[in-house]
Amino acid sequence: MQSRNVFILIFLFLVLDFIGINISHFFVVVLYYKELSAITFNLSLILVINLAWFSSAYLIKLYTTKNVQSMSTILFKSLLAFSFQILFIGIISAVFKGLLIDKTIVFYSLIGEIFTLAFVRGLIFITEKNFHNFQNYKPKIAIVGDSELSDKVAQYFNRNKVSFNLVGYFKNRDSLTSFDRVVTNEIANLVDGNENHLDEIYAILSSANEPAVASILEKAGQHCIKLRFIASFSELENLDSTQYHLSSFCNGVPILTSGPEPLNSVRNRIIKRLFDIGFSLFVIFFLLSWLIPILAIIIKRESKGPVFFKQLRSGKNNKPFYCYKFRSMRLNETANLQQATSNDVRVTKIGAFLRKTSIDELPQFFNVLFGNMSIVGPRPHMLSHTDHYRLDIEKYMSRLSSKPGITGWAQVNGHRGETAQVKQMKDRIEHDIWYIENWSIKKDIKIVYKTFLNVIHTDVNVY
Length: 463
Hints:
Elements: H1 4-33, H2 43-59, H3 71-95, H4 103-130, H5 132-135, E1 140-144, H6 148-159, E2 165-170, H7 181-192, E3 200-204, H8 211-222, E4 226-230, H9 233-237, E5 245-250, E6 253-257, H10 266-302, E7 308-314, E8 320-326, H11 349-357, H12 364-370, E9 374-376, H13 383-389, E10 405-407, H14 409-412, H15 422-437, H16 441-457
Parallel strand pairs: 1-2, 1-3, 3-4, 9-10
Antiparallel strand pairs: 4-6, 5-6, 7-8
Helix pairs in contact: 1-4, 2-3, 3-4, 7-8, 10-12
């Protein structure tokens, strides 16, 4: 289980520790020499101090998810790392006498380092506790059910409060087989709430089919809340791999999902984001930098209105964002409600060309750079479509667990253009979910290549 919040915290610790250690050494050197003209910095000494600290931190696993959950653990591990740092500096100075390590400067640098590291930890911990935006990075979680397994999962989240925010643990009040109306309403309000909107619900697998629980889970799915199932090892042995997938272990308890989630891995998300940034910067600098001025003149000459068309679309976790395109239609009141159709009178001459060649989508590379979109992913739908289809198509909201893309698996397989029938939308959703469950960077590159081929040959479904 990986939380974005804790990785940000670890990154801050690493960066601020590095800055703090070197600043404390700088001030010690300045105070030691007193006269600015006499100040000299021993590069070997600076390297030794940094190498000794970060080697010690790595040895005792200071910068790990497990060890940044409480201030007591952080302080204990930091003192342990500091002790090893002193030992390493002593060993290095004894073995490599040619480094000429100044013992006085080392001593005062280490004294200053203690206060600096303590300040960094206090600052980060206070910020983590009180800064609202930092709190928003924590997944908000609710547990539904009452068993020894659900208690263990709750204990895990309570021990890892830096990574997760357990906002509710809803137990059966009357029996082990049904929830009373009060509990059901409490969870329903939490699912619908804007301020405390849930990110994940953990339910006991054996109770998932009970009417009250099933109703809650169905509603959660419609609100883009991820569903997790708490299972026993006996259930894990008889697992139906077509229905459930082992995601992780939480305090030794198996956690299941309805499908694999490769992009739940921070490593995979970093790889995908680096690809997005690199590709979008390339297109912006080498293509859009000269294409935008040319198209701006043509678009403005043919019809009144802005060069760019922006529209609210459904983003990751159903958060709306403004999606940018070159304007291809005359200004009209139905742009946010009605898809383009064949021979649409709203489309301008230059707009028809832009849409046929997909050039109108190019400004979305700015969306990718800003982090609203990805190069590859499910296409972002209009808000009206999301509100309509999420009630009619099963797993529709699952597609929003990933950032929307400029192109996608559905698009390169012929599912583009107008969705006049529900079946057309269902086919898109099936392809989108397959992509999310089977993501790899190789697939992204393959989809980009196939998109390029489709643009060259033009798609009959695009108008």
